[in-house]
TrEMBL record:
PANTHER family, per the entry: BLR2807 PROTEIN, GLOBIN FAMILY PROFILE DOMAIN-CONTAINING PROTEIN
UniProt protein name: Globin domain-containing protein
Record organism: Capitella teleta (Polychaete worm)
Residue span, Globin domain: 1-119
Family, per entry: Belongs to the globin family.
GO MF term set: heme binding; metal ion binding; oxygen binding; oxygen carrier activity
Keywords: Heme, Iron, Metal-binding, Oxygen transport, Transport
Length: 143
């Protein structure tokens, strides 16, 4: 994600100075960030049976990202491909089609709520700044 999307890399101050893929992959900062993100996703998935808690967790996580002024909705959606790739690599041969569909729906649900939280916080932080509202999955299509 940081290698293939320059906009993602530029949004994270700690990664801007890393010019080569090897610098990124050897970075303890990237490893720590990845663990934080995966732990958050794990907590969300483990609580899927408690809809209110999950929605609150995800929206609050999206709201918390407003402090990183360079983020956009598209940057949140760039998580989808990287997450699905990581799941596929981790599960390897134990990743049948029905699990691919489940994980795709789950990450889209999560990202959609992250974006809702982020947009809400942006509207509050930038009174008068118009954040467009879109359909449930934005321009990213239904699963």
């Amino acid at each position: 994600m940081f290698e293939t999307n320059r906009q993602v890399k530029e949004a994270f101050e700690k990664f801007r100075s890393m010019d080569t893929p090897s610098e990124l992959w050897q970075s303890s900062v990237l490893e720590t960030h990845g663990m934080v993100v995966m732990n958050a996703i794990d907590e969300i998935i483990c609580n899927f049976d408690d809809r209110e808690t999950v929605v609150e967790l995800i929206i609050e996580q999206g709201r918390s990202h407003v402090r990183f002024g360079d983020l956009t909705e598209d940057l949140f959606w760039s998580i989808e491909e990287a997450f699905l790739h990581a799941v596929k690599e981790t599960l390897d041969k134990n990743y049948p089609q029905h699990l691919q569909v489940i994980y795709k729906k789950a990450i889209r649900f999560i990202i959609n709520l992250l974006v809702i939280g982020f947009k809400s916080a942006m509207r509050e932080a930038n009174k008068g700044y118009c954040v467009p509202e879109g359909p449930l999955f934005g321009n990213h299509g239904a699963p």
